[in-house]
Design brief:
This protein is α+β, with helices and mostly antiparallel strands and 155 residues long. It has 2 domains: 3-77; 103-152, Beta Barrel (OB fold (Dihydrolipoamide Acetyltransferase, E2P)). It has 2 helices and 5 strands. It has helices at 3-22, 29-77; strands at 103-106, 113-118, 121-127, 137-143, 148-152. The chain is rod-shaped, with a radius of gyration of 34 Å.
Amino acid sequence: MEAWIIGAIILLGLALVFLEIFFIPGTTLFGVAGGVALIIGVSLVYVYFGNDWGHRILLGSLVAVMIAVLLGFRVIQSNKLAMKAQVEGRVNELQTSLKAGDIGHTITVLRPNGKANFNGTKTEVYSQGDYIERDSQVTITHITSDKIFVKPLKS
């Protein structure tokens, strides 16, 4: 077997290990394939070129893998691969100009939640456990960070 073929197998193995460490961490598929390619390449060196070259290539491959692993840990710890963006939005945080005591009417049946209209603004509201018919007048009793509670207005 020619030396360039064995060299290509070893370089492929190193490239796959490098790919696993730096670009696709956690998949293990590329790391395992790279490890297998390295073992096959080094074994072929032992078979075709003897122990002296086999030891040299084995040592060189181990050093290359160790350097890749150490550099990989350095890059991961430096956060150069991490996304630095922060999410500024909030989920379920109510932003409204409504306040307790506002009067509106239900657009849907409240059982216990549904839609109501206050000053031309449709919003989701919650009854305090009561079933409230559609087109009923309601008043806001209190507002929490993410919910508006209403009760039927007594006529």
